[in-house]
Backbone:
């Protein structure tokens, strides 16, 4: 009955469990077998906790929407007592947690069977996943010479390889959407504060970071968001209420929308021609569905936002490292180059710069809100400016943190779209609607006005129905 799990989404697997066609234990067996067979080529799944998973099944799983479905947590955040984490860093290796995070409590209540973690880059500050703590890079199931993206790269690789049907991720500058684009998956970043951050953090990176999920289908993301949404106790702010649930929103098409199509970067820089053509092709698809599409790019100070993002994340990285060092020296055997560079960059900033940068992010959010208020309902672009990068291009060896982020060949040149919506707080998604001539996925990016998550996910579901991607399989998954 189980057959090829790599061809199923989590909703279908949960339906099998509910109808008693398979048991949670059989699904876990299949996932563990897939780890054994496929993970050596990928280095995506780490810190297996089979005993914890077996005990959860034996004790009785919650009767949530994904009861019995195998699941993996990103090894960054999502703190859980039963799942120690390296957090992508030798400095933080084998960190144990005193209690479960709010997001993990809600994930567990869906009935998933969590059995391990997935790799992430140190500090989550990269578009590739090549952390030294895991002994080597994480590789892309479509072509193992290429990266699956970051910082939720291990989750993206595990889902694309058919090890699990969905996995946890988080997104502070594209860290769900970049792996989704790189691995041929669906990735959705909700509106700021739609999901809980506590109790280990009040907010991530001045509110720019938020949890999320890597999935094969829009419906899996919709159902998981519905199960996990809402503030936790003491949250500093909350997202606007939804007009309807995500699951209800995808049950019918959205109204016909005004779509701005940007086939360059948001500052007008050309992108890879195959990627630009993929964006235009989706524009034509949207027109065929009755939406109004015209050229357009946001009117907002993107360079200011990128500088502010870089400073905020640099300070946040330095704070975490200084706390973990506990007086020890900042040495290469504990902390990788980019992170050491982030600490040095933070040390050079004026003490008032952090709050100034937060103010610039807020100003940028207002600029983007103004653009959507008088302009389009949806902004269509690429997710990445080119197909997935080769392994090694974005490793953390360099100590030039600023150049790594904002240099002419840095992360922002490669991924000029995603962080814009972390800064503005708007919902945004990457859809696997295209492939390069070399056989690598190309992600298509859609964003909507602040708080309009249901409109955006409904459009994603309409595009999934119009141009299905479920049958497309990575070579490692076959």
Residues:
């Amino acid at each position: 009955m189980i057959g090829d799990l790599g061809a199923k989404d989590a909703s279908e697997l949960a339906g099998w469990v509910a109808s008693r066609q398979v048991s949670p234990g059989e699904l876990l067996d299949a996932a563990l077998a897939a780890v054994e067979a496929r993970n050596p080529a990928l280095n995506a799944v780490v810190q297996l906790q089979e005993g914890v998973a077996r005990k959860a099944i034996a004790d009785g799983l919650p009767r949530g929407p994904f009861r019995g479905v195998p699941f993996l947590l990103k090894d960054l955040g999502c703190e859980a007592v039963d799942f120690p984490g390296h957090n992508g860093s030798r400095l933080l290796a084998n960190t144990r947690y005193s209690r479960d995070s709010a997001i993990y409590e809600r994930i567990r209540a869906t009935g998933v069977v969590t059995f391990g973690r997935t790799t992430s880059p140190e500090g989550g500050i990269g578009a590739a996943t090549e952390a030294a703590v895991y002994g080597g890079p994480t590789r892309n199931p479509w072509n193992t010479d290429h990266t699956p993206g970051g910082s939720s790269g291990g989750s993206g690789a595990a889902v694309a390889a058919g090890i699990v049907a969905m996995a946890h991720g988080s997104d502070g500058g594209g860290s769900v959407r970049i792996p989704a684009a790189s691995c041929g998956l669906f990735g959705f970043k909700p509106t700021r504060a739609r999901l809980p951050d506590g109790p280990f953090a009040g907010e991530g990176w001045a509110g720019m970071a938020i949890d999320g999920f890597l999935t094969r289908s829009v419906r899996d993301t919709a159902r998981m968001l519905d199960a996990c949404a809402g503030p936790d106790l003491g949250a500093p702010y909350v997202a606007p209420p939804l007009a309807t649930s995500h699951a209800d929103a995808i049950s019918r098409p959205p109204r016909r929308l005004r779509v701005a199509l940007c086939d360059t970067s948001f500052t007008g820089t050309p992108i890879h021609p195959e990627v630009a053509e993929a964006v235009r092709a989706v524009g034509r698809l949207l027109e065929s569905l009755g939406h109004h599409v015209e050229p357009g790019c946001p009117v907002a100070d993107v360079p200011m936002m990128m500088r502010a993002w870089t400073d905020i994340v640099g300070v946040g990285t330095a704070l975490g490292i200084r706390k973990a060092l506990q007086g020890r020296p900042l040495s290469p055997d504990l902390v990788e180059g980019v992170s050491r560079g982030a600490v040095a960059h933070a040390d050079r900033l004026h003490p008032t710069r952090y709050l100034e940068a937060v103010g610039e992010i807020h100003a940028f959010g207002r600029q983007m809100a103004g653009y959507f208020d008088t302009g389009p309902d949806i902004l269509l672009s690429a997710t990445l400016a080119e197909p997935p990068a080769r392994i090694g291009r974005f490793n953390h060896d360099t100590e030039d943190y600023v150049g790594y982020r904002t240099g002419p060949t840095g992360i922002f040149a490669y991924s000029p779209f995603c962080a814009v919506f972390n800064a503005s707080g708007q919902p945004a998604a990457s859809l696997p609607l295209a492939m390069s001539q070399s056989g690598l996925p190309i992600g298509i990016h859609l964003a909507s006005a602040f708080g309009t998550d249901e409109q955006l996910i409904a459009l994603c579901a309409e595009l999934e129905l119009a141009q299905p991607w479920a049958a497309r399989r990575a070579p490692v998954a076959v």
Q: What stands out?
A: The mean pLDDT is 97. The CA atoms of residues 182 and 388 lie 5 Å apart.
